[in-house]
Design goal:
alpha/beta, seven-stranded mixed sheet, three-stranded mixed sheet, 18 helices, 10 strands, 32% helix
């Protein structure tokens, strides 16, 4: 090894000989590791990418792959696939996938047509997803043909969903099977859109009112220096972050979403796995989600359309580990689990009470062509303000009905209402917040 070069190989005597390890790496990748690139470097010639251009041909494809043929043509930093890029790396490392695998996108095209809408060519309206991310086959096929690794970041399909809670609502007469929106077997027909994050950094920085330089540096530092091009490639403006994306569930005809003569019911839901999937009763997430699905289905049955957007922002984007640490501290604190201390305990552990930062959230609504939401099934003031602030009208805000709240979730909901959540009822005082108490450990038998 010469001075200035680095080797990722371990010289641990218990490990395979260094020479063998080197050969394994060289069978997958070129021998020279490209740690970063520079705009003026030989062989660096990015495919033009003009964010917000009206014509997709002028806008250009988002190209982020580092495979040999594409490295020099890349016009985006980061990695494709959101957080799943790490599993891809593992698949390559164990030999299950060749690093030069070329996907075959034939027959993968969207089942339903969306847009294009004006927002797709407004460089400030959509900054956290690629508005043409579903249209690789349609618009960017020539690049794929030429051997460039261009991948979709949005996929659109359709499905039936069946939920025990919806069966229950049907048996209670809350919903009826019309044979169209809800089949005779109680299945809900949906169109689904999955989107991975694609950030146009100048637009993201502007949305948060910060400089692009600060944003780039923070992303570089807090990903363990994972993407040096954030620093060395100011000419590249698009970054694919290694985070979760979102899913849209549409009840009724998606073409009704931008139609001002049709009513739209919508919920924007942030993932809460403990409640959504496993039924934890400490919060209102699942009951609220189910209620919104019912309301969306009803709107569609009445001739409108319903939309649920599901963001992978677990535990207010703090993650489940932080969430459980907070649960423990809430239950153990002196005086018990009170609404008065609900946010304080999160702040003690995480330093902030919420990291969802809803500023980027309305992008998907603009992508869908939403102009007006007739019924917004959410009490969140942050979501409401972000949506209205982005130019979408919200006609009615709908709280979760009292009878659907689990008893132990009172702590959360009262604390949120006192903090600004929408309610048609009373806003609790500091005194009431002290008296709203959740179960303590002794009452949770394990
Ligand atoms: Zn929850």
């Amino acid at each position: 090894m010469t001075a200035g070069t680095v080797s990722p190989l371990s010289a641990d005597p218990g490990n395979e000989p260094v020479q063998d390890q080197l050969q394994q790496v060289q069978s997958l990748y070129p021998s020279r590791v490209v740690l970063t690139t520079y705009p003026s470097q030989h062989g660096i010639n990015p495919i033009p990418l003009k964010w917000g251009a009206k014509d997709p041909a002028e806008r250009g494809p988002v190209v982020v792959s580092r495979n040999q043929e594409t490295l020099g043509k890349r016009n985006a930093m980061g990695a494709g696939g959101g957080s799943y890029c790490i599993y891809r790396a593992l698949a390559v490392a164990i030999g299950a996938l060749t690093p030069n695998h070329r996907p075959d996108f034939r027959l993968t095209e969207p089942t339903n047509k969306f847009g294009p809408f004006d927002a797709w060519c407004d460089p400030e309206k959509i900054v956290s997803m690629d508005p043409w991310g579903h249209a690789v086959v349609e618009h960017f096929d020539k690049y794929v043909e030429e051997g460039t690794d261009v991948r979709p970041t949005i996929a659109i399909t359709k499905a039936h969903i069946k939920l025990a809670e919806i069966d229950d609502a049907i048996s209670k007469g809350i919903l009826s099977c019309d044979g169209d929106i809800i089949t005779k077997n109680g299945e809900l027909k949906v169109v689904k859109v999955a989107a991975e994050p694609v950030w146009y950094l100048p637009g993201v920085a502007k949305r948060f009112g910060i400089s692009e330089a600060v944003l780039r540096r923070a992303l570089f530092e807090d990903t363990g220096g994972m993407y040096p091009e954030l620093i060395t490639r100011p000419d590249l403006q698009v970054f694919l972050p290694p985070i979760g994306g979102l899913t849209v569930y549409i009840f009724g005809d998606p073409a009704f979403i931008p139609d001002p003569t049709k009513r739209l019911t919508m919920r924007v839901h942030d993932e809460c796995n403990g409640s959504d999937v496993f039924g934890s009763d400490i919060c209102t997430c699942k009951p609220y989600l189910i209620y919104s699905i019912e309301e969306c289905a009803r709107e569609a049955q009445n001739g409108g359309v319903g939309v649920v957007v599901y963001f992978r922002k677990e535990g207010r984007a703090l993650g489940e580990v932080t969430k459980y640490l907070v649960y423990n501290a809430r239950k153990r604190q002196e005086g018990g689990d009170t609404a008065a201390n609900y946010f304080k305990r999160t702040e003690f552990v995480a330093g902030v009470k919420d990291m969802r930062f809803q500023a980027l959230m309305p992008d998907i609504l603009h992508w869908l062509g939403v102009k007006r939401i007739d019924r917004f099934i959410s009490m969140s003031n942050m979501k409401y303000e972000a949506i209205v602030g982005s130019g979408i009208e919200i006609v009615e805000r709908v709280s979760i009905p009292e009878e659907r709240m689990p008893a132990d979730s009172k702590v959360e909901i009262e604390a949120k209402i006192a903090d600004g959540y929408f309610t048609t009822g009373e806003v609790p005082t500091a005194e009431t917040l002290q008296s709203v108490k959740g179960r303590n450990w002794d009452e949770i038998a394990h």
